[in-house]
Amino acid sequence: MLKLKSNIFSTSNLYNYYKLTFYKEDLEHLLTSIIAKITDNIKCLAIINDNVQQDIFGGIFFRSLSKVPYYKILVEDKEDLQSPNYHTLSVIRHIKRSSCNAYILLISNGEKITRFLRFGDKYRVIDTRAKFIILHDHHLFRSDLHYLWKKIVNVIFLRQHGRHYELGLFRRKQVQPWYDISTVPFPTPIRKIFIPHRLNTWHQGKFQLDNELFKDKTSNLKGEVLRVVTFKHIPGTTESGPKSIRVDILWTLAEVMNFKPNVYEAQFADLEKWGRKQLNGSYSGLIGEIQNGNADMALGNLYYTPYYLELMDLTKPYTTECLTFLTPEALTNNSWMTLILPFKPLMWAAVIIAMALAGFVFYALANYYHYIVTSKSKPTKKKIIIVQEKNKKVKFKPVQEHFEEEQFEGEGLYLFSELSNAILYTYSMLLMVSLPRFPSGWSLRMLTGWFWLYCILLVVAYRASMTAILANPAPRITIDTMEQLVDAKITCGGWGEEIKQSFLTSLDPAGQKIGLKFEVIYDIDEAVDRIAKGEFAYYENFYYLQYLRVKRQVEEDSQQKENNTHAKNNNQEIKQQKEKRNLHIMHDCVIHMPISLGLIKNSPLLTRINKYLQWIIEAGLVKKWLNDAIKKIISEEITEEKQNSKALMNLEKLYGAIVALGIGYFISICILIGEIIHWQYFVKKHPYYDKYNMTLYYKQKKLLKK
């Protein structure tokens, strides 16, 4: 019995030995044949196997890899590949960084393979667009794994058939095995049951058919329907439907790649738009449709940022958009500054300095000329005046008699001989008022002539600039730079937490300050209304801000027409409407953001779409489609600007003149009050004051000055 048991044990071991031996030899030859077919198309090879499949790779296989670099990972039986150990994970990541585009997964446990593929897809540690060779196992085709085979499409499954042994005491019969080679049925969608697509058969050391094992399945999608999620957003889509730049790109891609796009909007797309993270960790809106696998492609203003790259695949950026703020215009009217607006501050400073110096120069030359004239005048005559004082003797007092000043001064010198007159007549020349008398002295005459030329040029320039200001619409006070927005006492905001984080992590100090007062807002209508009230600035792309501004203006015009028909009943509403501010798009761009199409994570279509997008960009079609999408908005905006830029003269534009007149009135009244005070408290109390003989008071005052 012991011997029989020994014989039985020996026979069983012999069966397992032959089975394993032939199995290893067959699989090694098959893998060698497969690698020989794809050697020219792979950069490097990753081999992941367990202890059971360890001895399959022999000298024949490795000799076929003489020109191909490879990595080999041995997975322990107790290791869970959905949470691999540090050493295994580091090698897998190194394989990804090395751009290895071929994987051989020889693991006996199919469940372990599924866990590894789930892990690689979720954390992107494997290249799902690479070529995969996997042992056939029914665990791989469960319904909860169907999403993997929408991404890993360059895969072949190896299934062994026909190995039977009939063992006896004297003979052994062996049936030659064969392998069935199949793949996923991409682009045909996987329904409830996964049915592999048969590619080839390997029997007696060779392939039975001359089929390509890793055929490119993305060049022709064979008329399959791809679900495309989108929402209304300029310039992505228009209000009339999804017919703008990205849809045009979609139609072009559909024609080239032979698929039918099924464009639809996510649930509550008007509110959710791109989507928000829910309490359970899932996403709503466009991102939610992509993550749930309901959509194959996403059309929206998807910024090429790490935030979106983490949630989905992004294609090559096909355009860039200027991201900036929609800000309110200031209600403060600067029409009162009309008189000083023609010149800039530096110009006014130069004019004031020139005027001040001119007055002093005229005064200095007049006095110098006066000195020359008086030094050549006749000597003074002496007179003797008899002075008789009361109860005293008569005295003779000599007095020098001066000739009248005009006789020695020279003609015209009186215009500039006093500093106040010099400044007054200098300013009068600037106002094109002629002098009452031409000055004497060639130095004064030459200076007067050149100063007249200066005054003519200055006045002509001032008048021309003033005419342009009065003819054009009143200048608007706007916010056009990040620094001005930081200084403005308004709140900034935009759609989504990721926008706020981008400002907070910005290297620009102004951007960080904006991030501190940035408010996440999801209601666009509320945001526009707050901007009109002058308390908010909204962050979006330039074209969408143009659309919001034109839309609000159209709504205001229609509302104003309704109010005009019921003006008596709606006076208060009209008053509130006038208090609202105009909307202004900040001139400076915060950033020029690249825009992409969105695909499901690890999509097999990414490489092919990037290739066609590059051709579309080089052909200039993107620029044309963009112009077509915003043409209507631009035309409406130009019409609105023409209506607002009519050169109408009104009282508002003459506020500067009224302000100047008011200043004159104010100064005159102050001087008048000062004169009255001086008359009451100084003149009337003077000892020589006599209201009946005022001449005596002024004569005595002149004598005191002399």
Automatic annotation (TrEMBL):
Any one Gene Ontology cellular component term annotated for this protein: plasma membrane
GO MF term set: ligand-gated monoatomic ion channel activity
Domain Ionotropic glutamate receptor C-terminal: start-end pairs: 347-664
Pfam families associated with the record: Lig_chan (PF00060), Lig_chan-Glu_bd (PF10613)
This protein's record includes keyword Transport: yes
Membrane-crossing residue ranges in chain numbering: 346-366, 422-439, 451-471, 654-677
Entry's localization field: Cell membrane
Matches recorded under InterPro entries: Glu/Gly-bd, Insect_Ionotropic_Sensory_Rcpt, Iontro_rcpt_C
Transcription regulation as UniProt keyword: no
Annotated membrane topology: Multi-pass membrane protein
Domain (Ionotropic glutamate receptor L-glutamate and glycine-binding): residue spans on this chain: 246-327
Keywords in alphabetical order: Cell membrane, Glycoprotein, Ion channel, Ion transport, Ligand-gated ion channel, Membrane, Receptor, Transmembrane, Transmembrane helix, Transport
GO biological process: detection of stimulus involved in sensory perception
PANTHER family the UniProt entry points to: IONOTROPIC RECEPTOR 20A-RELATED, IONOTROPIC RECEPTOR 68A, ISOFORM A
Family, as annotated: Belongs to the glutamate-gated ion channel (TC 1.A.10.1) family.
Stated name of the protein: Ionotropic receptor 68a
